[in-house]
Specification:
The structure holds two protein chains of two kinds. Chain A is mainly alpha-helical. Chain A has a single domain, classed as ABC transporter involved in vitamin B12 uptake, BtuC. In chain A, strand 1 and strand 2 form a beta hairpin. The radius of gyration of chain A is 23 Å and the shape is globular. Helices cover 30% and strands 24% of the residues of chain B. In chain B, the strands form five sheets. Chain B has a six-stranded mixed beta sheet, with helices on both faces. Chain B has a six-stranded mixed beta sheet with strand order 16-19-20-13-21-22, sandwiched between helices. A four-stranded antiparallel beta sheet of chain B has the order 2-1-4-5, with helices on one face. The radius of gyration of chain B is 25 Å and the shape is globular. The two termini of chain B are 35 Å apart. Classes of the chains: A mainly alpha, B alpha/beta. Chains A and B meet through helix 8 and helix 9 of A and helix 2, helix 10, helix 11 and strand 18 of B.
C-alpha cells in the first residue's frame, strides 16, 4: 500500500469491470493529451485537432464507413492475437501472418485456374492455412527448444515483409503494370463485394464478427476452450491436470496465425485487388492489432469495439492529412502513445485508489 | 560458556535517542513473568524491567473485505520467548508485517522501550532493533555466509567489508550456539544452517527484538530442539524473541508466554505454566478439539496398490534427487514418507504422478506398469494427487470453484458431450461436492482464489477423492491449515484408507505422519533410510533417520 499525498493505493488483485473501463479510458485520454502537445509543436492547435479527429471524422457521412476499412483487418488479426494471449503465447507476428495470407490469396487468384464461384472461398481457406503455417514455426521452436516466441514471431514478420517485396518486384511482378512493383489485378471473381458507395468489404466484416462470437463460445463452452483457459491462467495446473501444453499451444497458434491470414485475404481481395508493396498492403495492422487485443482484455467480443476505435484513429489520420496538412504517419504516433499509456496503466488496474487525508502523524524516522 | 570480549554490535540504538520526546505508554496489564525466567539483562539505556521492550497498542488493519487485525495489543519483554499462536488466517503474519514496516496499520500505536515509534519500512524496523527471520530465507546462494551477513549491515567499510564480519560471526556464533563457517557458501549449507545465517544476520544488525516466522517448519525434530536452545541463549542475553507458530507442542516446549490470535483479535496472553495444549487449542479454534483420530479398521489386504522399484529421478537442475528408491503400498494402507524438505520428496511425487520422467526404475499400479506415462494416463489409471503447492498447481485461482472441481474430469462424460462442456452437469456436480465436502464458498461460480486455504484444500480433495482412486498421493495435505480443516482432511484420508485405497502421505509434520500412517518410510538425500511400522517407532528414531541414519 502506498500513500501519495491524499491518495492511498490499496492492492486489489481483482479489477472490477468499471475500473478496467475507467483506467483504459484514462490511458487513452492521456495519450490524446500528449498527442495534443505534438500537434501544438507542429503548429496545429490541439483543440482544433481533437475536433477534426472526433467531430469531422464522425460527422462526415463519407468518412464514417472509412473507419471500417482498417477495422476489418484489426478485428480479424485482433481476435487471433487475443486467443494467443489467453493461452500465454505472446504472438507479435500477426503482421507476418497477415502477409502470408495475402500471398496465398494472390496465388489462388492469379496463378490457379479456380472456377469463379470457388475463387473467394478458396482464397480465404488458403489464406488461413498460410497464416497458420507462418505461426507454426515459432510455436514449434517455442515448444521444442523453448525459444522465446516474442523474438521469433517478430523476426518472422521481416521474413514475410521482404518475401512479399521480392515477389512483387520479381517473379510475381505483373506483365501488364509496366514499371510498377505490383502484380496484375485480380480477376473479377476474386473481388469482394462492397457496401454500396463505400470501401467496406462486408463479407470479411461479417466473417470477423462471426468469428469473434465463435471464439467467445469456444473459450467458454468447449473442452478446447477450457484447456486454453487453464493453460493460460496457470501452466503448472494445466500440466497437473493432464492437459497437453504442446497440443493446446500449437492449436492456438494455428488459429491465431490463421485469423491474421484471413485479415490479409480481406486486404488483397477487398481493397487492393492485387499484391503490392507490403507496407501498402498492411498499414501496420498486425502491430496495431496487438493494442486492439490488449485493450479488449481477453474478451473476443470486446475486440469488435476496440477494432472500430482504432479504425477511427486510422481514418482520422487521413482526415488530419487533408484538413490539417499533417503527415498521415501521425496515426502511428497516436497508436504508439495509446499503447504506451495502456501498458503503463496496467499496474493501476490492480490498485484501488482512495482519497484519504492522513491525520497528524508522529515523526517518521529515516 | 566462554564469554568473549564483547565485540558484538548489540543494542546500538543511536537513532532511538532522537525520539525520546513522547510520553511512555501506560502499561495496561500487570506483568506475569514465569518464575523460571532468566533475569533481564537489558542493554537498553535507563528503562526498568517493567517497561516492555516492545508494546503494541490497539493495532487495527483491514484489507478490502477482511479485518486482518482488530485492536491487537501485545507486550513483549526483554528476556522472554513469546509465542504468537494462531491458525492460518488468524492475522499473525499481518501483525508481523506491520511490526516490520511492510504494512502500515489503519489504527493503533507501537512503543519500543516505552517510546512511541512509527515504523514505515523494514529499514525503520531495523533501526529500532527489530529483526526478522523469514520462513523462506532471503540469502544470496552463491555468496558466502560472511558476504550475506555483510550485505545487510549498516556500518560496513567500503573496502573489504567482509573481513571484520567474519570475526563477528564467529563471536556471535559462539555466544548463541549458532555455529556456522563464515567462509562457506550458502548453497553448501543445510537448511538449518541457512536459518542460523538468517538469525546471525538479524543479530549482527543489532536486533534486540527478534521475530521468527514458523521457524521449525523446515527442521528435523533434533534441529528444532537445537533452535530452541539458541532461543534460550538469546533470551538469557536479554533479547525479546517472538516466535510465530501454529504448532502447540512447540509453544509448550519453547515459549515463556503465549498470545493466541483468532480471526485477527487477541484471545488472550498467558504464561506457559498456566496453560496446556487443550486450553491453547480451544483458544485457537474457539471450541474443543478432539485429539484422537477416527478408528482404523484392519483392512489386512495383501494386494499392492503401488510398487516402486529402484526409482531414479533427477531434479530440475539435472542432479540425482531420488536415488534407487524402492517401496510398496498395500491397499488399505497409509505409507507415510517422512523427511526434511528437499530430500527428494518432490521429485518422487512428480515421478509417481507423471509430472517428471524417471531416469531408471519401475512404477506399477494395480492396473499395471505406469513408469513414465503421462499425468493423464496415470490419473485415468486411478491415481489421485493432492499436490504440494495447492495454489500454484492444485487449482486455477482465477477460474470458478465449479471449473476447478472438474479440472481433471472436464473431458469425460457427463461433463463433456463431444467437444462441448455441459455447464449444467458441471454446476450440479459442484453443488454436490460443496455440500459433501463442506467447502465454504459463496457459490460454485466464485473464483477459487477467493477461498481460504482450508477450503481450497477441501476443493482439491473433493476433486481428487470423488474419482474413487485406488491410490492417493498426498503431499503436505494439511500444511498451513487450521486445526479444524486439518482434522477434516485427516478423516477423509483415513476414510479412503479404510475403504481400501492405498495412500502415500508425504509430510514434514512428524505428528501427522505418526498419527495417520500404518508404515513410515524415511527419505534422506534421495534414498530410503528404512521403512518402519508406525506403531513401534520412536520419534527420536525417526529423527535420526531423517538425519541420515539407516534403520
Amino acid at each position: 500500500m502506498r500513500q501519495l499525498g491524499p491518495l492511498r493505493f490499496e492492492p486489489d488483485p481483482e479489477p472490477p469491470l468499471t475500473r478496467t473501463i475507467v483506467v483504459s479510458a484514462l490511458a487513452i485520454v492521456t495519450a490524446f493529451l500528449v498527442a495534443g502537445m505534438i500537434f501544438w509543436a507542429y503548429g496545429v492547435s490541439p483543440l482544433r485537432a481533437y475536433r477534426v479527429i472526433l467531430v469531422d471524422t464522425l460527422s462526415d457521412p463519407r468518412a464514417v464507413p472509412e473507419i471500417f476499412v482498417p477495422a476489418i483487418p484489426l478485428l480479424l488479426a485482433g481476435i487471433g492475437l487475443l486467443l494467443a494471449f489467453r493461452a500465454q503465447f505472446y504472438n507479435i507476428g500477426a503482421e507476418g501472418q497477415l502477409l502470408a495470407g495475402t500471398v496465398a490469396a494472390t496465388w489462388i487468384a492469379l496463378f490457379t485456374s479456380t472456377p469463379g464461384p470457388l475463387m473467394l472461398p478458396l482464397m480465404f481457406i488458403t489464406g488461413f492455412a498460410a497464416g497458420a503455417l507462418w505461426g507454426l514455426l515459432p510455436s514449434l521452436l517455442k515448444l521444442r527448444l523453448n525459444v522465446n516466441e516474442v523474438i521469433t514471431t517478430l523476426m518472422m514478420n521481416y521474413i514475410a515483409l521482404y518475401s512479399v517485396s521480392w515477389l512483387v518486384t520479381g517473379p510475381w511482378k505483373g506483365p501488364s503494370v509496366r514499371g510498377f512493383a505490383y502484380t496484375d489485378t485480380f480477376p473479377d471473381a476474386a473481388w469482394l463485394p462492397y457496401l454500396p458507395g463505400t470501401r467496406v468489404h462486408w463479407p470479411t466484416l461479417l466473417l470477423g464478427i462471426a468469428l469473434a462470437i465463435f471464439l467467445t463460445f469456444l473459450l467458454n463452452r468447449t473442452r478446447f476452450g477450457f484447456e486454453i483457459r487453464v493453460q493460460g491462467h496457470n501452466p503448472d495446473a494445466a500440466r497437473y491436470a493432464g492437459i497437453n501444453p504442446l497440443r493446446t499451444t500449437l492449436l492456438v497458434m494455428l488459429l491465431s496465425g490463421g485469423l491474421a491470414g484471413l485479415a490479409g485475404v480481406g486486404e488483397v481481395a477487398g481493397i487492393h485487388h492485387k499484391l503490392l508493396d507490403p507496407n501498402q498492403v498492411s498499414l501496420g495492422y498486425g502491430y496495431v492489432a496487438i493494442i486492439v487485443a490488449w485493450l479488449a482484455r481477453g474478451n473476443p467480443l470486446a475486440v469488435i469495439v476496440t477494432a472500430i476505435f482504432f479504425g477511427l484513429i486510422y481514418s482520422s489520420g487521413d482526415v488530419m492529412q487533408v484538413s490539417l496538412q499533417m503527415p498521415a504517419r501521425v496515426t502511428d504516433v497516436f497508436n504508439g502513445l495509446i499503447l504506451f499509456f495502456l501498458i503503463g496503466s496496467e499496474r493501476l488496474l490492480h490498485y484501488r485508489v482512495r482519497w484519504i487525508v492522513p491525520e497528524g502523524r508522529s515523526a517518521p524516522i529515516g | 560458556m566462554r564469554t568473549l570480549g564483547g565485540g558484538l554490535l548489540l543494542g546500538t540504538h543511536d537513532l532511538k535517542e532522537m525520539f525520546g520526546q513522547e510520553a511512555p505508554p501506560t502499561v495496561g496489564e500487570p506483568l506475569d513473568m514465569p518464575a523460571e525466567q532468566a533475569p533481564i539483562m537489558s542493554s537498553g539505556a535507563g528503562q526498568t524491567a517493567r517497561v516492555p521492550r516492545l508494546s503494541v497498542h490497539n493495532i487495527t488493519k483491514t484489507f478490502p473485505g477482511v479485518i486482518a487485525n482488530a485492536q491487537v495489543s501485545l507486550d513483549i519483554h526483554g528476556g522472554e520467548v513469546h509465542a504468537l499462536l494462531g491458525e492460518n488466517g488468524a492475522g499473525k503474519t499481518t501483525l508481523m508485517n506491520i511490526l516490520y514496516g511492510i504494512y502500515q496499520p489503519d489504527d493503533g500505536e507501537m512503543f519500543i522501550d516505552g517510546r512511541r515509534v512509527d515504523i514505515r519500512s523494514p529499514r525503520d524496523a531495523i533501526a529500532h532493533g527489530l529483526g526478522m527471520v523469514p520462513q523462506h530465507f532471503l540469502l544470496v546462494r552463491r555468496h558466502t555466509v560472511a558476504e550475506n551477513v555483510a550485505l545487510g549491515l549498516r556500518d560496513t567499510r567500503f573496502l573489504f567489508p567482509v573481513r571484520r564480519v567474519e570475526q563477528q560471526i564467529r563471536e556471535a556464533g559462539e555466544r548463541y550456539g549458532l555455529a556456522v563457517d563464515p567462509n562457506a557458501s550458502v548453497w553448501q549449507l543445510s537448511i538449518s544452517e541457512q536459518q542460523r545465517v538468517e538469525i546471525l544476520k538479524a543479530l549482527l544488525r543489532g536486533a534486540e527484538i527478534l521475530v521468527l516466522d514458523e521457524p521449525t517448519s523446515v527442521l528435523t525434530p533434533q534441529e528444532a530442539t537445537q533452535l530452541f536452545a539458541v532461543l534460550k541463549r538469546m533470551k538469557a542475553e536479554g533479547h525479546a524473541v517472538i516466535f510465530i507458530t501454529h504448532k502447540l507442542d512447540e509453544v509448550m516446549e519453547a515459549a515463556d508466554r503465549v498470545t493466541v490470535l483468532r480471526k485477527g483479535a487477541v484471545i488472550g496472553t498467558q504464561p506457559i505454566a498456566a496453560v496446556d495444549k487443550r486450553t491453547l487449542a480451544r483458544m485457537m479454534v474457539g471450541r474443543d478439539v478432539e485429539f484422537h483420530m477416527p478408528g482404523r479398521s484392519d483392512t489386512g489386504s495383501e494386494r499392492d496398490a503401488l510398487v516402486v522399484q529402484d526409482l531414479w529421478v533427477r531434479d530440475d537442475r539435472g542432479l540425482p534427487a531420488v536415488r534407487g528408491v524402492s517401496f510398496a503400498v498395500r491397499q488399505g494402507e497409509i505409507l507415510g514418507v517422512a523427511g526434511v524438505a528437499g530430500n527428494g520428496q518432490r521429485e518422487l511425487i512428480e515421478a509417481l504422478t507423471g509430472l517428471k520422467a524417471a531416469e531408471r526404475g519401475r512404477v506399477a499400479l494395480r492396473a499395471g506398469d505406469v513408469t513414465n506415462r503421462s499425468a493423464r494416463d496415470i490419473y485415468e489409471a486411478g491415481v489421485a494427487h493432492i499436490p504440494e503447492e495447492r495454489m500454484r498447481t492444485g487449482i486455477v485461482p482465477q477460474m470458478a470453484v465449479s471449473e476447478n472441481l472438474v479440472l481433471k474430469r472436464f473431458r469425460y462424460p457427463p461433463f463433456s458431450r463431444g467437444a462441448l462442456i455441459d455447464l449444467q452437469a458441471v454446476g450440479d456436480f459442484a453443488r454436490r461436492m460443496i455440500i459433501e465436502y463442506e467447502i465454504v464458498t459463496p457459490g460454485p461460480h466464485t473464483p477459487a482464489r477467493l477461498l481460504s486455504g482450508g477450503n481450497i484444500q477441501k476443493l482439491i480433495l473433493a476433486r481428487e477423492l470423488s474419482a474413487q482412486p485406488g491410490l492417493i498421493i498426498a503431499a503436505h495435505p494439511t500444511y498451513g491449515l487450521d486445526v479444524s480443516a486439518t482434522d477434516q482432511i485427516h478423516r477423509l484420508l483415513l476414510h479412503r484408507r479404510n475403504e481400501g485405497a492405498g495412500v502415500v502421505l508425504v509430510s514434514e509434520d512428524l505428528e501427522e505422519i505418526l498419527a495417520l500412517s500404518d508404515r513410515i518410510a524415511v527419505l534422506f538425500r534421495g534414498e530410503v533410510m528404512g521403512v518402519v511400522a508406525a506403531g513401534a517407532v520412536e520419534r527420536e528414531t525417526l529423527g535420526l533417520m531423517m538425519a541420515g541414519q539407516r534403520a
